[in-house]
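4Fe-4S ferredoxin-type domain-containing protein: structure tokens wanted.
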Amino acid sequence: MPEFNLNKSACSSCGTCVSTCTPGHLKMNTNPEVVADTMCIECGHCEAVCPEGAINISGPELEAPMVDISSKISPEDMGNYMRNRRSIRNYKKRPVPRETIEEIMDVVRFAPSGGNQQLVEWIIIEDPQKTRELAGLVIKWMEKLAEENSPFAQVLPVESLISVWKSGLDPILRGAPNLFIATAKSNEGSTPMDGTIALSYLDLLLPSFGLGSCWAGFLQMAADFEPIREFLGLKDSEVFLGALMAGYPECKFFRVPKRKKLSVRYI
Ligand SMILES: Cc1cc2nc3c(=O)[nH]c(=O)nc-3n(C[C@H](O)[C@H](O)[C@H](O)COP(=O)(O)O)c2cc1C
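Answer:
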């Protein structure tokens, strides 16, 4: 557990840290006090929320100073940004430079996670040839399904996907130069959901870098196929949480595609 250090002379006893904290960790006396260390999820909110900067949590230094732009992004701009995000299915050949990937992933690490566990890890493919090889393994998995007459092969259009692949196109990873794969050391608690959330952060962030992405659903379905696990170097207990193809979009959208009306019940 990190140490909770309070500068009592700076503390104004406003209690904001206690009300922001997970229940049972801090309580307010004259000043905030730790009740039960076991309840701390190391979210760092107490240190980040204190108006006086009176709290210091042991461990790594605070992140770079906060730049609050929430009042500068209008709901309209944000709404348009989100409505305009599209699944990209054709990419320029050039891969995303490593520095850009690092910049992106330094934001993605702020995705929320259950209990602040931060258990999502990443495998990032930077070599378009490797992305193609991996797509080929998904096709191998599909060929196996077809051979075995698996019920999966009745649902998935495996025959047409295989024939598109044989024609030289890539219907699996769409010729994307890069692939971002979320993994975890083991499947526990909220890790599958954490993986999806982290990937959604990535998906939504990429257009701001002039990049596009698409969820790699076929790869996800084939992820337990041993040659794929081997290709990715996944250890026995490691789990594949999901993946996004990514790269510079080859085409531009001019309209927002139609979507169903929202179904919502207010109670
Ligand atoms: C879980 C998931 C898996 C997907 N898998 C694929 C895929 O394997 N190939 C593909 O071209 N698109 C895939 N998509 C993209 C969807 O087809 C796409 O999100 C949908 O058509 C809506 O388009 P939009 O994302 O541009 O709004 C996937 C999307 C999700 C959420």
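The radius of gyration is 23 Å. The chain has a mean pLDDT of 95.

Cheers.
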